[in-house]
Amino acid sequence: MKTYQLNGTIYYCPVDLTLSVIGGRWQGLVIYSLREKAKRFNEIKRELVTINDKMLSQTLKKLVEQEILNRKSYNEIPPKVEYSLTEKGKKLLPIFTQMEKWGKEAVL
Amino acid sequence: MKTYQLNGTIYYCPVDLTLSVIGGRWQGLVIYSLREKAKRFNEIKRELVTINDKMLSQTLKKLVEQEILNRKSYNEIPPKVEYSLTEKGKKLLPIFTQMEKWGKEAVL
DNA sequence: GAAAGCACTATCTTTTTGGTAAGTAAAGGG
DNA sequence: CCCTTTACTTACCAAAAAGATAGTGCTTTC
């Protein structure tokens, strides 16, 4: 059986691998919220409404490790940190375009 | 704020709604495994390798309720039950096409 | 007559997720 | 001086999801 490996984990197919990046409670939504431009921690938080600090920082950390997001910290006080999609992350956007489409049709 | 409703749950955007259908540990993979043809319980199980009986029947049940899958039971012994994508379910396939693509690139 | 196949369900344990609250460091405003 | 702002981390507890294992009822095969 062919397998696919990413960050030390083995997946049995490419879809499984992709789902590990965008599935889960918050990962997909965080990526999607950065589709147009870089945003700060609290901006993302306000957009996702029901996420809390703990979940957001956990999710951001993971996505940075997976090289889906860039983290840019300005040395200011109060702190300013911006998150944006990497090239790898931007390539996920066509998936979200299709999801948008399906989601809109599903509620009709 | 605009909201989207499906099966009594409210989502703040169409992507959130779609993720509730294909995200989660097994839902997406079960849908994807039925992309070409109807399959029986044990066929799906063999394909997904690490899923167990409980998770598979739970996932199938949920997807049938959401009208993503059809369940067809033949009155035979030993039992024969086939699962297939509904029209609504088939419309999810472009999402998986994009996921496949990304997953294949990600391991390069 | 034991074992395997089928599509499940029931029960239990472990892991993951979520929720709340508190703490940090330094600057700016009242 | 105290409060606010920012982007976090840590601790603790509760709830939800996932996972492991066993059992069911009936038939065909070895």
Task: Please tell me about this protein's structure.
With 108 residues, chain A is an alpha+beta fold. Helix content of chain A is 51%, strand content 19%. The first copy, chain A, has helices at residues 14-22, 27-33, 41-48, 53-65, 87-90, 93-106, and strands at 4-6, 9-11, 39-40, 69-74, 80-85. A three-stranded antiparallel beta sheet of chain A has the order 3-5-4. Chain A is globular, with a radius of gyration of 15 Å. The model of chain A has no long low-confidence stretch (mean pLDDT 91). Chain B binds a DNA duplex (30 and 30 nucleotides) through residues 24-26, 40-42, 50-58, 73, 76-81.
What is the fold's blueprint, element by element?
2 copies of one chain form a homodimer.
Chain A: E1 4-6, E2 9-11, H1 14-22, H2 27-33, E3 39-40, H3 41-48, H4 53-65, E4 69-74, E5 80-85, H5 87-90, H6 93-106
Antiparallel strand pairs in A: 1-2, 3-5, 4-5
Chain B binds a DNA duplex (30 and 30 nucleotides) through residues 24-26, 40-42, 50-58, 73, 76-81.
Comma- or semicolon-separated keywords:
homodimer; 108 residues; Arc Repressor Mutant, subunit A; three-stranded antiparallel beta sheet; two-stranded antiparallel sheet; 6 helices; 5 strands; 51% helix; globular; DNA-binding
